[in-house]
Structure formats: structure tokens, C-alpha cells
Design brief:
CATH topology of the largest domain: Aspartate Aminotransferase, domain 2
Distance between the termini: 20 Å
CATH superfamily of the largest domain: Type I PLP-dependent aspartate aminotransferase-like (Major domain)
CATH class of the largest domain: Alpha Beta
Order of helices and strands: EHHEHEHEHEHEEEEEHEEHHEEEHEHHEH
Keywords: Aminotransferase, Pyridoxal phosphate, Transferase
Largest sheet: 7 strands, mixed
Organism: Actinokineospora guangxiensis
GO molecular function: transaminase activity
CATH architecture of the largest domain: 3-Layer(aba) Sandwich
Family: Belongs to the DegT/DnrJ/EryC1 family.
Strand content: 15-25%
Strand order of the largest sheet: 2-10-9-6-5-3-4
Number of domains: 2
Structural class: alpha/beta
Cofactor: pyridoxal 5'-phosphate
Oligomer: single chain
Length: 373
Amino acid sequence: MGEALPYGRQSVDESDIAAVAAVLRGDWLTTGPAVTRFEADLAAWAGAPAVAVTSGTAALHVAYAAAGVGPGDEVVCAPMTFVATAATAALHGATVVFADVEDEHLTLDPAAAAAAVTSRTRVVSAVDYAGHPADYDALRPADALLLADAAHSVGGTWRGRPVGSLADVTTFSFFPTKNLTTGEGGAVTAADPALLERARRFRNHGLVRDRAEQRHPDEGGWHQEVHEFGLNYRLPDVLCALGSSQLARLAAFKSRRAAIVARYGDGLADIAGLRLPTRHPDADPMWHLYAVRVLEGRRRALYEHLRASGVLVQVNYIPAYWHPVFEDLGYQRGQCPVAERFYAEQLSLPLFPDMSDADTDRVIAATRAFFGV
């Protein structure tokens, strides 16, 4: 059977290890110069200033806080995503309104999103599913903020503009299976300085250290105040050093992922029982998942066949409102039929930069064997 092949895995080399070791030998472990450097390095890729945080989930929580989301507000959200995209809005007290995705790239359908917007909508949250950017030009609401959940898509572009600059606020994840890693980590980008400052303040307990902004500035040089509650979502120097090193390799990661996607396409295109992912002509994706659709009700059987072969495929994701926490709030199945139909067929084949051509061919061969072709 051979060694198990995961659906995703980090790529860490000696340059990454050296970057982390340099921080460990220095004076700073958290909130030091490596944080500033990583935020600048990420901003160069994203096309907007960045605030580093502890995870992709933290990035969403911070972004909704910066947007002023609270009780009485609604957040329109794509359902084909990890639950955190919706859960973090609900944790701020907002009502999550799910709008369906479009069938080709599984990103938020602009018509469905527009139909879901009301006078109470504070944020419209799109998700760059599998690394393919959503159509943010078509999605932009008139009286609400547009959020890009770009956990899958750092390094991608839409109509020549980088992911990170397409929406009012963008969130990233740097979990090990993502396109670059800081171990655990995430970030928020925004062009609006006020929005970014609210994000920066929320990730540091809401602390106000600028005397000009303090309510009681004469307490002494030690004084700091909290005007609005925040949390400790600071990403430490040691992890930001890893992030900067990984960003130096991001172009190579992107190229390798694209080569694997092309090899899969060549090897699987003639299988009638599979529908392969496609790319919009305006998109240059950072392919995060290779999400095939298994037709005729055979997804579970192919999943079990490949897993038994040591190919550790995954399903990404159940529609977010299927989780019992949303069921208990009254959300019902059937409200986003395109997403639900996709979920019933979806399977993520292994895709990560250190996959060899032989690894890719192994997945292709095992898949072809299942279909008998």
C-alpha cells in the first residue's frame, strides 16, 4: 500500500527552521520585530496592510469586531466553508443568514447574496473556496462591509488584483494544511486605516496606550486603558518568523500546486464519474484543495476505497448550517441546494507542495482503478 498520503501537509525546510531558531536566540518571543516584518511581508502579497493574529478563526472574530458586528446585525455568509466563518459572527451576537453558492466554483452567488441583504445586514462574507477567489466586484453590497474569507487563497489574484485587496476586510489562515503556515496563525488585511486600527486593538485586549486617546492620561507613564473589550490574539515573533520565511517560498508553493492540479487534470479528465474543478478566466488561483465531484452517489465508496489504499482523502465541508449548533437555532437543511448538492459529491484529493509526481500518479491510479478505467 505504501506510506499514507495525507490530503494536505506543511512544507518546512531548513530556511524555515533557521528563521525560527534566530528568534529563539534573540530577545523577543512575542510581539517584537518579527511580527512587524511578517505583517509587512504579508501586505506586499495582499496589497493591503495586515494585522497578524493567532489563527484563521481569530482573524474572523477580529474582523467582525472591527466591522462593529453585534446584536441586531445580520451577516450574510456562504455555507460552503468551515464553520468558523459563521460561528465567529454568531459569537458577536449577529444573526447569520446563509446565501447559496454558484455551481461552478462554489463561491458566494452574487444574486443569492443580494437577495439575502436587508437593512440589518452589517457584513457580507464570501469564501474563496479551494483557493478560487469569489467575484468580489459583483458581490459588493451598497450599505454593508464586504469580507473575504481567504483562508484558502493567499497568493491568488482576481482580474490582476491580489487576494487581500479585493474586499473591505480580508482574513487569512496559516494552519499547517494551508498554503503557507505559521503553525497556528492568521491575519486580517484592510485598506481602511480605521478598520485596521480597530482590528489591531481588538487583538490586544482593546488596550489604548496612546495618551492622546486615553480618558485618564495623567495616571503615569505606565497607564493603559480598555475602552472596548478585546482578546489576546497576538501571534508571537517565533511564529511570525516562520511566516516570513514561508512567504519567501510562496511563489514556489503556488507553482507546484498548479503543476499538481494540471497533472490531476490530465490523468482524470476522461473519467465519466468525476467532475473536476475549473478556473474562471479572470482568476489566478492559489489552489488549496483539489475538490472533485463524485457523481451517481459514489462519493462514500470512493472515499473508502482511496483511504483503504493509503490515500487520505477528505471532505470539505458539510454546509455550515448543518452543524447541530445551527440546527438548534432553527436553521434547516434545504435552504442552499447548490451547496448541499456539492457537499453530497465533494472529495478533496491530496494536494500539497511536497507531493511528487509519483505521489500524484499514485492517487490517479487508485482513482482510475475504482472506476475501472
